[in-house]
Structures are given as structure tokens and as C-alpha cells.
Design a protein that fits this description.
Elements (H helix, E strand, L loop, with lengths): L9 E10 L5 E5 L10 E2 L2 E3 L6 H13 L2 E14 L4 E13 L9 E5 L13 H12 L1
Parallel strand pairs: 1-6
Antiparallel strand pairs: 1-4, 2-3, 2-7, 5-6
Length: 138
């Protein structure tokens, strides 16, 4: 008897909750092509081999938004299954240090309050981050 093992890709993603001095959080809108096109997200990206989550987050934010951040404590870890892949999000609290955010690898960016996030469509896994931020805010 042959055992069939179906595996889906598993992505490990470093996610930044970047706050500015006014307490707003930076979100970006994904490009109009590809997975979850046009949805809003917290910036970040795939953890590369031999890279820590903190290194990944700092690198991705510099590459995608052109800014320097301080990567702080991990807020939460989320594992979520989408139809075509599994994802683990390593969500860190981050502080904006310098530079003006630019939409280098995304369609657009916004600084928003936690209460404003409900106005933006996010991927399913990000809903847990928003719920956690709402609890912290209250």
C-alpha cells in the first residue's frame, strides 16, 4: 500500500506593527496581482534561511517601505491555513525611527488608528492581530 502525503507550502512571515509618535499604526495595501491582491496588511515578509525574525522584519521594512525601525518584543504568533498554503506570522511591536515611508513594494500606505482598521479589508490571519490591538487599546 502506498501512502499519499499532501503537503502545502508553509510560509514563515515576520510582521511589523509599526507605531509612530502619534500612536498610529502603519498598514500597506498589497499589489493588485498575486496572493491576496489588493488587501491591506501589516508590513513584513518571508523569513530567509539563517535569518532571525527580527532581522527579517528590519530588512523587509527597509526594502519595502524605505524606513528604519526598531524591532521590539513579539506580540503574538499566529498559524493559519489558507486554501493553498499555511502561514505562521511572527508579530512584533516596532517603532518608526527614521525615514518617510514609501510604497516601494506595495500599492499604498496609511497611518491609521486601531479603530480605523475596520474600514480596511485584511487577510483572514491579520484579523487576530487587529483583535489583539483592540484589546491592548482598551
Amino acid at each position: 500500500m502506498t501512502e499519499i502525503v499532501c503537503t502545502v507550502p508553509h510560509k514563515k512571515i515576520g510582521v511589523a506593527v509599526i507605531r509612530n509618535q502619534q500612536g498610529k499604526i502603519l498598514i500597506d495595501r498589497r499589489r493588485s496581482q498575486g496572493d491576496m491582491a489588493g488587501l491591506w496588511e501589516f508590513p513584513g515578509g518571508k523569513v530567509e534561511p539563517a535569518e532571525t525574525v527580527q532581522e527579517c522584519i528590519a530588512r523587509e521594512i527597509k526594502e519595502e517601505l524605505g524606513i528604519e525601525i526598531a524591532v521590539g518584543d513579539r506580540l503574538m504568533t499566529i498559524t493559519h491555513r489558507y486554501p493553498n498554503f499555511d502561514v505562521t506570522l511572527f508579530v512584533h511591536d516596532c517603532e518608526h525611527l527614521s525615514g518617510e515611508p514609501q510604497p516601494i513594494e506595495c500599492e499604498e500606505i496609511h497611518w491609521v488608528s486601531v479603530t480605523e482598521m475596520k474600514q480596511y479589508p485584511f487577510p483572514e490571519a491579520n484579523q487576530q492581530i487587529i483583535a489583539m490591538l483592540e484589546k491592548i487599546k482598551n
